[in-house]
C-alpha cells in the first residue's frame, strides 16, 4: 500500500515522500488524515539528531535515527476497518497517534496518510461545534493536561509554569481550570499574550512567594533553581522538559522545601479520554494557539519555520488533501 509521509531523511532535512507499507491487518484501521499538528519541541530535537527515543537523548555511540517520520498526532476520517476491530466504523471522525511507516528507522510515525493505525491508538471524536483540527494536537494537549493535574491543589493556591510553548500553555490552562492562581513565565510577548486565565510575564522577580506548584515544561533547571525561593513547604515540582544528558536534579535542594517531584511522560488512554473531553467542553482551548497552517506539500517550509526560527510561531498545522 502506498502512503504519503513527512520524512526526516537526515539531520535538519525534511521532505514529503511516498512510502510503501504492508497492507493493513485485522487489528488495524486506515485513516484518511485531514490535519496533523507538529510538536516543535520533540520533533525538532529528533530532526536535529538530539534524541534516540521519546525521552532518550542520543549518545555519541548511538546510530543516528534516520530516515524517520516524526510526530504523533493527527485527525481524519476512517476509511477501512480490520476484521478484528469492533469499536470503529468507516466514516467516523477520529484522532490517531502513531501509524505504520515500514522500512524506516522507526516502524511508526505521525505525519502520514493514509494512516494505517493500531486500533488502540485511535480515539473517537465527540460531537462538537469545534472544527476537527481542534483535536489534532491531542497528545501534546494531554501532556499539558498531565502536568496540570499531577500535583494536589486547592483553589486559590499559586502555580508557576515555566515555558510559554504549547505544553506550557496547556499546563497553565489546566491549572487555572482547577482553580489555581497561575503565573506563566516565558520569553515571548506574542505567546504570553495568548494566556488569558492568569498572569503572563517575562519577569520572574515579580512572582510572589509562597507558591504551591512549579511546572517546568522546557528543561531549564537554572530557572527552576532560581524559582525555588518562590515555593512554600510541601510544594510540588512537575518536570516535563527534555534535559538531554544534563537532567540531574539536586534532590537535597528540593528537600529544604519537602518538595514532591512529578515526572509525567507519554500518554495513556484515561488521560487522552479526559483531555479530548476537556477540549470538547471548552475547558482547554487549542485553535487560538495555532499561528501557522501549511498544506502538507509545503511540509519542508513548515519545519524550516521553527527549526531555523524564520518567524515567531507556536501551533503549526499541516493540512492534508481532502
From TrEMBL:
**What protein does this entry describe?**
2-desacetyl-2-hydroxyethyl bacteriochlorophyllide A dehydrogenase
**InterPro entries membership:** ADH-like_N (IPR013154), GroES-like_sf (IPR011032), NAD(P)-bd_dom_sf (IPR036291)
Per the UniProt record, the source organism is Armatimonas rosea
- Entry similarity comment: Belongs to the zinc-containing alcohol dehydrogenase family.
Per UniProt, the keywords (alphabetical) are: Metal-binding, Oxidoreductase, Zinc
**Signal sequence, renumbered to the chain:** none
User: What Gene Ontology molecular function terms does this protein carry?
Assistant: metal ion binding; oxidoreductase activity
Q: Give the Alcohol dehydrogenase-like N-terminal domain ranges.
A: 26-127
Q: Which cofactor does it need?
A: Zn(2+)
Q: Give the residues annotated as coiled coil.
A: none
Q: Which domain of life is it from?
A: Bacteria
Amino acid at each position: 500500500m502506498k502512503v504519503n509521509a513527512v520524512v526526516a531523511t537526515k539531520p535538519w532535512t525534511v521532505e514529503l515522500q511516498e512510502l510503501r507499507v504492508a497492507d493493513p491487518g485485522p487489528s488495524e484501521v486506515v485513516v484518511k488524515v485531514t490535519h496533523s499538528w507538529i510538536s516543535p519541541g520533540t520533533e525538532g530535537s529528533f530532526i536535529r539528531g538530539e534524541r534516540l527515543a521519546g525521552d532518550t537523548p542520543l549518545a555519541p555511540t548511538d546510530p543516528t535515527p534516520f530516515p524517520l517520520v516524526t510526530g504523533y498526532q493527527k485527525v481524519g476520517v476512517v476509511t477501512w476497518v480490520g476484521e478484528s476491530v469492533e469499536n470503529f466504523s468507516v466514516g467516523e471522525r477520529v484522532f490517531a497517534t502513531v501509524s505504520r511507516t515500514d522500512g524506516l528507522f522507526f516502524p511508526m510515525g505521525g505525519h502520514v496518510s493514509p494512516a494505517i493505525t493500531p486500533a488502540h491508538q485511535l480515539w473517537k471524536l465527540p460531537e462538537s461545534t469545534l472544527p476537527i483540527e481542534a483535536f489534532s494536537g491531542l497528545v501534546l494537549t494531554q501532556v499539558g493536561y498531565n502536568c496540570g493535574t499531577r500535583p494536589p491543589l486547592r483553589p486559590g493556591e499559586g502555580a508557576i509554569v515555566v515555558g510559554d510553548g504549547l505544553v506550557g500553555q496547556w499546563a497553565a490552562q489546566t491549572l487555572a481550570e482547577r482553580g489555581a492562581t497561575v503565573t506563566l513565565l516565558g520569553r515571548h510577548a506574542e505567546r504570553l499574550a495568548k494566556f488569558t486565565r492568569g498572569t503572563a510575564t517575562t519577569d520572574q522577580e515579580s512572582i510572589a512567594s509562597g507558591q504551591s506548584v512549579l511546572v517546568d515544561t522546557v528543561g531549564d533547571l537554572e530557572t527552576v533553581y532560581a524559582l525555588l525561593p518562590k515555593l512554600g513547604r510541601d510544594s510540588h515540582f512537575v518536570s516535563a522538559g527534555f534535559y538531554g544528558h544534563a537532567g540531574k536534579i539536586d534532590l537535597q535542594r528540593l528537600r529544604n522545601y519537602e518538595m514532591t517531584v512529578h515526572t509525567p511522560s507519554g500518554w495513556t488512554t484515561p488521560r487522552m479520554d479526559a483531555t479530548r473531553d476537556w477540549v470538547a467542553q471548552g475547558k482547554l482551548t487549542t485553535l487560538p494557539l495555532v499561528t501557522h497552517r501549511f498544506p502538507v506539500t509545503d511540509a519542508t517550509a513548515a519545519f524550516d519555520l521553527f527549526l531555523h526560527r524564520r518567524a515567531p510561531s507556536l501551533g503549526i498545522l499541516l493540512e492534508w488533501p481532502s
